[in-house]
Amino acid sequence: MWPPRVQIAGVSSLEEALFCHQVGVDALGFTLELPSGSHDGLTAEKAAGIVEKLPHDILPVVITYVSSATDACSLVNNMGARAIQFHGGIALQEIELFRKTCPNIKTIGCVTVADESAMARAAEFKPRNWDAIILDSYDPNTGKRGATGKTHDWSISARIARTAQVPVILAGGLTPENVANAVRSVLPHGVDAHTGLENPDGTRNFDKIRDFTRNALDCLAQCGLS
């Protein structure tokens, strides 16, 4: 399914990945090559071991800060991913080279929705180079972009969803409790969650994954988006 209706980011175990598939998740985000080290000890080798055991109808996505076409192609090939989310950005010439080198890999760009400038940023993502964009949040206290647990101004995201040239995936502080309201407010093609599905100690809460997926899919269907 493209674009994915529900993506769960930060997957780091086969148990979690298979549970996500069981409850109807479309895409799994594996966070690799981050600025501050590994997430939950995940390596490309460990991710590859998970991916090779997955049913083919769930999409493995690399979420990464690599910014060169060579490194990105190596990462997706080593892991067996079928999509890549350039969460830290990538230069135009590098994404064009990536498209030539890995033409069958879906590309997801990231737009941080901190203010009105996100509108202009989202307009830069165009077909041929990009298959979708993900709208995420910014935490001014930590400087983090993504995995902040914070929502952003959904009215800006709604305007982006109406005008973007590629499909929009909404992220940023989404939880089982607010995802339906987020979908109704923004009308995105899909949604993504990470920290909103964790326990206080940072471990995954499988009940939250199930409830988030159910609530998201139900609302997307009600809004005619799936």
In short:
This protein has 226 residues and is of the alpha/beta class. It has helices spanning 14-23, 44-51, 69-79, 92-101, 117-123, 154-163, 179-186, 206-222, and strands spanning 6-9, 27-32, 59-64, 83-86, 106-112, 132-136, 168-170, 190-193. Helices cover 36% and strands 17% of the residues.
Distance between the termini: 10 Å
Largest sheet: 8 strands, parallel, barrel
Q: Strands of the biggest beta sheet: in what spatial order?
A: 1-2-3-4-5-6-7-8
SSE-based structural type: alpha/beta
- Globally, the shape reads globular
What pattern of helices and strands is seen along the backbone?
EHEHEHEHEHEHEHEH
Please, could you describe this protein's structure?
The chain has an eight-stranded parallel beta barrel, surrounded by seven helices. Helix 1 (about 15-25) links the parallel strand 1 and strand 2. The chain is α/β, with parallel strands linked by helices. About 35% of the residues lie in helices and about 15% in strands. It has eight helices and eight strands, in the order βαβαβαβαβαβαβαβα. The protein is globular. Helix 7 packs parallel to helix 8. The chain has helices at about 15-25, 45-50, 70-80, 90-100, 115-125, 155-165, 180-185, 205-220; strands at about 5-10, 25-30, 60-65, 85, 105-110, 130-135, 170, 190-195.
Topology:
Layout: E1 6-9, H1 14-23, E2 27-32, H2 44-51, E3 59-64, H3 69-79, E4 83-86, H4 92-101, E5 106-112, H5 117-123, E6 132-136, H6 154-163, E7 168-170, H7 179-186, E8 190-193, H8 206-222
